[in-house]
Design a protein that fits this description.
mainly alpha; Rossmann fold; Glutamyl-tRNA Synthetase, domain 3; 4 domains; 3-stranded parallel beta sheet; 3-stranded antiparallel beta sheet; 12 strands; binds glutamic acid
Length: about 475
Amino acid sequence: MKVRVRLAPSPTGTLHLGTARTALFNWLFAKKEGGTFLLRIEDTDIERSKEEYIKNIYDGLEWLGINWDESPTIQSERVNEHKQIIKTLIDKGFAYKCYASESELDEMRETQKKNGLAPKYDNRHRNLTPEQEAEFINAGREPVIRFKISNQKLISWNDLIRGKMTWSGKDLGGDMVIARRAPADLIGDPLYNLVVVADDSAMQISHVIRGEDHLANTAKQILLYEALDLNIPIFAHTPLILNSEGKKLSKRDGVTSISEFKKMGYTSEAMANYMTLLGWSVPEGINERFKISEISEIFSFKKVNKASAKFDWDKLNWLNSQVINEMSAQTLLENLDPLFKENGWYLPNQEWGLHLVTLIGPSMVLINDGINQSKPFFEEPELSNDGKKQLVIKESKVILKYILEKLENLDAALFSKDDAVGLIKDATKDCSVKKGLVMKSIRAALFGTLNGPDLIQSWVLLSRFSKDRTRISRFI
Ligand code: GLU
């Protein structure tokens, strides 16, 4: 079988983590099987669909390295085909016009609720006589179009992740609306389940891989495939992504869209790596840190869990720091330099930049950490409490005065590690203090705090801007 899979996002919001993970599983499966991965933009909700969201979805997928084949199908361009299919269903007796008004339907649901029943359309207009229909039309009612769902029907499929699934027709909410209200001689806007079946069939989709929140839709869609005598694709329903409290990950959890993760400083490689782990268990002997291109060779739905996946920030952070650590200084600098420029920070030269990122890289978790950690090299730092405490010590002032005098005889542009080491040694001896005190005093004066990367290297970098002298002179 030729494998053809698709991602079918609705452009009513930015690319969500769950949708991106679905995209990734589709992509991995297509790569593994030598198949085709397609995109379909489900933009039939005209009011909520936006061009900017379509762009956000394309950008997010591209950023993650999830490339698609062929040009995307735009669902709204196929509305005539959808309506034609609805007409066929009506002509064949699988669908009908339902004139029940919203208030009648509300009343029906209220009664069901009072009797402890789940809300369900009671198929009241399934068998209207032509006279009854004429009466509704004369009364100015506009119908929806409903697809018949038999209560007795059992629907089964072999899910690639969840195994054999069976749904009963009676649990699908009654005859399903497939087109919105419109004058009786027209067909209203076609709705989700109908258009998905029409499009998946037209796109010759072999496998439908999507979130488990679509299970009931799958049952309904199988009925549509059967009525239309179309090939039924194979289904795989991926587990939900939950937050740390075990609830479905939602906007309330803060960050959920791919562009936000990017903005926070996560790398595309760590994101793609982590999303694969959201539901897929790594086979024995394979490291959890991988590139998706490597995993596509071994990906299989056998290793996708049925149980929901919990979003784990610690693991994502760990992966991101791994990715940053694996980057060459050149690549890390390429990631950071645009952010430096946004802050108005310019490198004295490329080599200096490479030294800086080599120095701070090992302690970075997010790309954006590089900004905070680089800041004291470009801007006067604020004094932290521990820095303040250090600088009021009497000996600190003596040490800094000594260092400054020595620095005045040295060329800032040529200041080297050996110079820094020598100065610290001399100060320790000549001021009769401990080396630790000398180092802490210098660090506090230069960077405002007692924490940070290697002092000698940091100092040498700072001296390239001659900033070490001005900073020390503030505290003597
Ligand atoms: N537009 C639907 C969604 O975003 C697509 C579901 C499907 O894959 O059929 O949930």
